[in-house]
Amino acid sequence: MDWDQAVDWLERGCALAYPTDTLWGLGCRADDPAAVSRCLAIKGPSRQTTSSMIVPLEWLHEIVVMPSEAEVDRFLPGPYTLVLPLRQMRFKHLADPKLSTIGIRVPNHLKLMAAVHKLGQPLLTTSLNQHGREPALNYEQAKALADVCGIGIVDEAFDGEGPSTVIRWHQDRWHVLRQGLGPAPD
To answer: Which CATH architecture has domain 3-178?
Structure first.
């Protein structure tokens, strides 16, 4: 499907496979608890407590508590997931219950970000893989998994390189939770 069809797919509460700037993602509307449950069931059991959302930069102030514009601009858009305190309680079902934090992704992928704008809602996002397996890095891997799971897929040639770097803002500095494609903050 193309990106316009993908937006329609997401609006109906369906899970979708799509390319990002790092690897293939699996996502759905973050504001639809039933869609989130279906998407997480595809992924399988995980010990991860913080979910991630794809949002445009201009939505960040509404959704999370940010350290500063300059701190965020260092990493986004790009291959980072920023773990920040959740501000908007309508996404509480996605947050780490102990810390009320959520991972935020702003991929450097213009078509994906245009689709999120058109949808008008953040996407719950995770790597396209079942828990314990390697994530899909190319279209063929993504298509095979999408077919097995019965989800839609954006038809786009894309070869990913690996996961995003996950960093958390805590006590006035960034802490690396997972090293990925983005260099560790200095």
So the answer is: Alpha-Beta Complex (3.90)
